[in-house]
Amino acid sequence: MSSRGVRHDSMRARNLAVVLATIHRSGPHTRAALAERTGLTKTTVSSLVADLLEAGAVTETGAVRAGERGRPGVAVSLSGHRVAALGLEINIDYLAACVVDLTRTVRVRHIIPADNRNSDPAVILERLRGLAKEITAEAAAEGLRVIGAALAVPGLVEGGMLRSAPHLGWRDVRVADLVDVPLEIDNEANLAALGELWFGPRESDFLYVSGEIGIGAGLVVQGGVFRGTYGLAGELGHVVVVPDGPGCRCGGRGCLEVYAGQDALLGDLGSVTELVRVLESGDEAALEACRRAGHALGVALTSAVHLLDPGTIVLGGIFAPLFPWLSEPVSAGLETRLGQMRGAPPALAVSSTGSDAAVLGAAGLVIQQIIAEPAKLLGL
Amino acid sequence: MSSRGVRHDSMRARNLAVVLATIHRSGPHTRAALAERTGLTKTTVSSLVADLLEAGAVTETGAVRAGERGRPGVAVSLSGHRVAALGLEINIDYLAACVVDLTRTVRVRHIIPADNRNSDPAVILERLRGLAKEITAEAAAEGLRVIGAALAVPGLVEGGMLRSAPHLGWRDVRVADLVDVPLEIDNEANLAALGELWFGPRESDFLYVSGEIGIGAGLVVQGGVFRGTYGLAGELGHVVVVPDGPGCRCGGRGCLEVYAGQDALLGDLGSVTELVRVLESGDEAALEACRRAGHALGVALTSAVHLLDPGTIVLGGIFAPLFPWLSEPVSAGLETRLGQMRGAPPALAVSSTGSDAAVLGAAGLVIQQIIAEPAKLLGL
DNA sequence: AACTTTTAGTCCATAATCTGTACTTATCCT
DNA sequence: AGGATAAGTACAGATTATGGACTAAAAGTT
Fold first, then answer.
1. Which of A326, B111, B190, B317 could form an SS bridge with B218, CB 3.0 to 4.6 Å?
2. Interchain CB distance below 8 Å, A307 and B309
3. Would an 8 Å CB–CB cutoff place A379 in contact with chain B?
4. A342 Cβ partners below 8 Å, 6+ apart?
């Protein structure tokens, strides 16, 4: 709730953002079409587009004939040639980075396998800094200037600081000076949700369920992630499934994570790939684990639907490859439990962005910021 | 997400709103203080304040000395003398209406007891129309012009239409032409949450839990109510407490409502007042019912806290008079279950607005709109 | 082939609004 | 009484959007 007044310069900044956002949301437009949609005059739009062209945010991409007669307009599209966003991720067993241009095209991508459990933050961050430098240079070779970055971490983030990442064994780590552009830090599940929004087929509001070692969720509302008062919202993994169930590492009992976390699903198996293999061969213990997890997910998601009212539920992370075995029990659970309360339960979908969701979402967050505040980030 | 461009008139409209909102949030200000806080110049603020004075939204209320020396400034405060908001409520056993001025002072208030269960919408709405007319006239006698209204109903609202109100026995009722000013309709729990925000001691984000026959909740985030994709968010009453518990009227099993709804709490007793009396006399069955309800609330709220991350939890409706008996088991449940996950569980508080919360919140919603868009609603 | 219609985009004078400096007003301090 | 300090106002100037006139480019019409 900005309580700052609007001045001439912020009026123009806002109008630049409106034009850019319109192109971003609805594809290439002629200046005339932009004027129509934004309610601004053709003159004003021309002037705004001129600034955006100069800043390299948009390009003119040939003539389009609007109706049958009249002078054809010139389509103005987002430019993939000048500015770009850097996405970074620290996870349990890898470091990842990608550079994405304004058209949401992934231009460069790197993943370094690593065992980051109980690691020294300084060492890992130094390695990540190197990776960022390298990938920024590769982007520069393609003519792209990275103007912002975001970092996804598997833990709780508050005030730009990593408060705790149990699986990394990190506490209160300040991430600064990693790159020489503005850097955002956010939770893996939140950014994976944005990844699904920006690089998947989603259009509207949805709840992204991120199955990793823990289970997180990111609720996307009106193009942004709902974070709650302290940024701790979306902890689906600790929603209560059985009030007197087995103890959970969080101190609670019968949390979803106990039934559907990676450890519960894998049992003795070493990896999700392996689990999928034995599921395909019809292994009864594995099938039963999936049924149990699906049932628990159905219960927790029922509570989540009642509280959050998402339009769609997207299963991601390790739940994505397991979707064929989870989908049935989860949607059955939702259907019988939600029953009379609403027309139909939210649609259940599988994530399309795979394990890249979080890095991609990190880059997407930056692109979102560029489009929301072009004047600030493009130096207009 | 407005995609409309900013023009000169919308710039001014925004600045009027910024000034008014600053006074509303932080009390009377001199023009100089407003300039400081909004980032606008003194000149601009003077001009904006002049318009707001003329529209009757603010008044000058005497001199204030800022520092030690210098000319004293003139405090500009919200005016309670010209414009007002109408709050309306249809509930199971009464109709209510109130007129509130911009200073949040309740100027007129009426409650008509009535048995609205399984009633004819047309009849009740006609009665409400009469009540609205009457109270508007009484406000006019005090010099107040009602410029907007909102209606609280115990049911699901979608697209300005009452989809279903099970306890009234209403379905798909269109409420139009009830009054001759713009009318909003919303769910009782959502508006009660706003009532707590506007007329209670709350400042920041909180989850308002509304105990009535059903149990609803309204999450207040950044001054507004979080509604979800279809406006169905906050159905705390059907969060799963025991996955295989007793069936609920919603079709699910073991919902919170089964354990902590009015029916479960009252047992054979006729009213909450009566329940309080027997609790005070130490009736063991009643105490046990409260403990059970408190335990169930603790479980459901744990899930809610993990998903929504509210700063505070406010118990309202019938939970308010029962707070002395519920507070202990609820906060114990939250504390042990949330344990390691966050610093401390959200504070647990009792609602101060009593059974008026929803009507008051309805009026508060209108005032919120006046303050957010003064140019539109005051005709500037 | 020339003329008309239609739509896109630009030019330029005008209008709306905010800014900044100078000025007036009101109070306290010495 | 004179000076210092802060609030509020006046007015010229700056910024940005508007609106109508103009140019540009295409298709239809005669």
1. B190
2. no
3. no
4. B230, B232
Residues 6+ apart with CB under 8 A from A134: A110
Integer Cα distance of A60 and A49 in angstroms: 10
Rounded to 5°, the CA angle A94-A99-A100 comes to 125
| Alpha helices by DSSP H, chain B | 8-26, 31-38, 42-55, 121-141, 188-199, 256-260, 262-266, 272-280, 284-308, 323-338, 357-372, 374-378
pLDDT digits (tens, 9 = 90+) for B77-103: 999 999 999 999 999 999 999 999 999
Question: What is the spatial distance between Cα A310 and Cα B218, in angstroms, rounded to a whole number?
Answer: 16
Element (H, E) at B64: strand B58-64
Please identify which residue in the block is written with the tokens 């198996």: A269
pLDDT digits (tens, 9 = 90+) for A236-270: 999 999 999 999 988 899 999 999 999 999 999 99
* Contact indicator for B138, B108 with CB cutoff of 8 Å: yes
Within 10 angstroms of residue B292's Cβ, the number of other Cβ atoms is 15
B303: Cβ under 7 Å from strand C?
no
Contacts 24+ apart (CB under 8 A), A96-100: A96/A356, A96/A358, A96/A359, A97/A128, A97/A131, A97/A132, A97/A135, A97/A359, A98/A135, A98/A356, A98/A359, A98/A360, A98/A363, A99/A135, A99/A136, A99/A138, A99/A139, A99/A144, A99/A146, A99/A363, A100/A360, A100/A363, A100/A364, A100/A367
**Dihedral, CA of residue B281, residue B287, residue B290 and residue B291, to nearest 10:** 150
Chain B residues with CB inside 8 Å of A240's CB? Answer: 240-241, 299-300, 302-303, 337
- By three-state DSSP, how is residue B142 classified? coil
Q: Alpha-carbon distance A197 to A61, whole Å?
A: 26
* Residue A4 approaches strand C within 7 Å at CB: no
Structure tokens at B252: 């699910």
Render B165-232 in DSSP notation, one character per residue.
ETTTTEEEEE--SSSSS-EEEEEHHHHHHHHHHHHSS--S-EEEEEESSSEEEEEEETTEEE--SSS-
Residue A307, CB, less than 7 Å from strand C?
no
Distance (Å, whole) CA A198 – CA A205: 12
pTM above 0.70, yes or no: yes
In the three-class reduction of DSSP (H, G, I as helix; E, B as strand; rest coil), residue B326 is classed as helix
How many angstroms away from the CA of B312 is the closest CA of chain A?
Answer: 9
Report how far residue A334's alpha carbon sits from residue A337's, in angstroms, rounded to the nearest whole number: 5
Distance CA B193, CA B314 (A): 9
pLDDT digits (tens, 9 = 90+) for B147-175: 999 999 998 888 889 998 988 999 999 99
The CA-based diameter of chain A, rounded to the nearest angstrom, is 72
Q: State how far the alpha carbon of B118 is from the alpha carbons of B166, B167, B171, B257, B336, in Å.
A: 9, 7, 11, 21, 43
Name the token pair of B302. Answer: 């744990």
